[in-house]
């Protein structure tokens, strides 16, 4: 005969099992996107010009995938954006190493990490997605793949970034900086006029990081995740916190279970608050969009903003934060 304790344990497990199965199998709520109404959402001030470039594609009826790539290529090429692509802060040994990933409306994904000497990692990531049987290439392999496909080898370390690195070396303190100059990783999500969703994420990563360090931005599910049935989400901030909680995937799964993009971003930040003891030392921001064209954003510390292009208007918005300091 089953003793009472075992029975209760078994019953509890069974209930948990049912709840889990229910969650895992949760069907995406059938949200209808208003066809013909593209939307772009992206991180930080540099999201504004990136959104403009994405909008150029979308307003002509272009595909979300082309829009997200065109959008993030703008800060990648801008030497004044010191956290993405050309002009990005180097690692602690003076190397600019780039991470990027992209997802399309069919769930295809491409990614590059620890890539050097190539100005547009997002376009290399797209090529990995479209021309190889793989999802991710890193380091020298990624660079060789890029060169073999016509990308130019370029020195990405600008004088300004070198100077910042030399100043940093005087103390060599590795301390994550919250809201670096209000410019950080660019993550960009778009819905096109057919209602299809794609996303892109590209960065030079944490300034003066250890040589070889890779953050969340090229990791599918961490820095970016899109599911065309549900929506898309993307991250910025201290990548380690996002990786430990697989943040963007979490946001999309929460939306799948019925949460709004705003609530889902808040929950993903709360997951970090609950699980990571020293969370206050870092900044994290999430953006999200669902199939119905609703958007959301949330961060740990005040200071994270995002650019939203909707109804023919591009607007910079301060995200709400968990901490109020
Ligand atoms: C990283 N998430 O490498 C990136 C950096 C970033 O805001 O987004 N900073 O951890």
Notes on the protein architecture:
- With 325 residues, this protein is α+β, with helices and mostly antiparallel strands.
- It has one domain: (Glycosyl)asparaginase (Glutamine Phosphoribosylpyrophosphate, subunit 1, domain 1, 4-Layer Sandwich).
- 35% of the residues lie in helices and 22% in strands.
- The protein is built from 9 helices and 13 strands.
- The protein has an 8-stranded mixed sheet.
- A hairpin with a 2-residue loop joins β11 and β12.
- The longest helix is centred in the N-terminal third of the chain and has 21 residues, at 4-24.
- Bound molecules: N-hydroxy-L-asparagine.
- The site of N-hydroxy-L-asparagine has 12 residues, from β8.
- N-hydroxy-L-asparagine (SD4) binds at residues 184-185, 203, 205-206, 215-217, 236-239.
Please mark out the parts with pLDDT under 50 across 5 or more consecutive residues, or reply none. 1-23
Work out the oligomeric state of the chains in this entry: single chain
Structural class by secondary-structure content: alpha+beta
Shape: globular
SS summary, helix count: 9
Q: What small molecules accompany the polymer chains? A: N-hydroxy-L-asparagine
CATH level-1 class: Alpha Beta
Terminal Cα span: 58 Å
**Largest sheet composition:** 8 strands, mixed
Mean pLDDT across the residues is 90
Strand arrangement in the largest pleated sheet: 4-3-2-6-5-1-11-12
Q: Mind telling me the C-alpha Rg?
A: 20 Å
* Number of β-strand runs: 13
The SSE string, one letter per element, is HEHHEEHEHHEEEEHHHEEEEE
CATH second-level architecture:
4-Layer Sandwich
Number of domains: 1
Helix fraction, binned, reads 25-40%
How much beta, percentage-wise?
A: 15-25%
CATH topology grouping: Glutamine Phosphoribosylpyrophosphate, subunit 1, domain 1
- Any idea what the CATH superfamily is called? (Glycosyl)asparaginase
